[in-house]
Amino acid sequence: MKLLAFLLFISFANLISSTSQAQTLSIAMDENFPPYCYINESGKPAGIYVELLSQMLETNGIKFQFRPLPWARLVSETDQNTVDISIPWRATPERFEKYKMLGPFTHGAGDYYFFAKKTSKATWNSLIDLKGKSIGVVRGFSYPKEFDETTVLTKEAKNDTTTLVKMLVGGRLDFAFSDEIVFKAEMEKQNIQSQIIKVGRPLAGTDRYFVVPKEKSELANKLSKMFELFSKTPEYDRIVRRYISK
């Protein structure tokens, strides 16, 4: 194992020697998407994707700086090519066409559920059963195909998951639709786990990636090869297990 780690380190060094001499990489991160990426109580970037990128880049002596941003601004900055990397992005055909999608970070993202107040009597078998109900989503997010493509639902876009949870508890939404892991993290943060339930079956999630603007194809190619090597190391496994086991 030690020999493998050493050989991978040498591969890293040879692969990105020119990158390490470049200016500090700017990484735009969603500021409120725990446990994947968020700002912790100390005001610092945290989360599994933050740790994975940090470990990979630090191992190779590459300087970087995280820029916590609201999701809508993160997308805008990526589209304008004013950042080098942005995280995290769900996989869609349109995004693979528009950006350099690298990864995925991990395989098997969290499932998506409809959440409601515990006092709700609502059930559903088909999405059409939820017609006429107000369903909170995060503005600009991509969701499972079955949900994104339906036109029968009343979707109310809000700025972040924090807002969805508050509005759901306050009775201003009938449902919120979210990645289970993200929504549970926010419920714990607001200490209202006992007030909200999952309703019905899950819709399968998809893997999440980190993005490099297409204009930076040389950087994207180097980072892609770097991540391929890094994902085979003990350090990668250690970080993933620590979060997945929670």
Describe, in short, the structure shown.
This protein has 246 residues and is of the alpha/beta class. The protein has helices at residues 2-15, 17-20, 48-59, 71-79, 93-98, 145-149, 161-169, 180-190, 217-230, 234-244, and strands at 25-30, 32-33, 37-39, 45-46, 64-69, 85-90, 100-102, 112-117, 134-138, 154-158, 175-179, 196-203, 208-212. The chain contains ten helices and 13 strands.
Would you identify the CATH architecture of the largest domain? 3-Layer(aba) Sandwich
Total beta-strand segments: 13
Order of SSEs: HHEEEEHEHEHEEEHEHEHEEHH
- Between the first and last Cα atoms, what is the distance in angstroms? 26 Å
Could you name the key traits of this structure?
single chain; 246 residues; D-Maltodextrin-Binding Protein, domain 2; five-stranded mixed beta sheet; 13 strands; globular
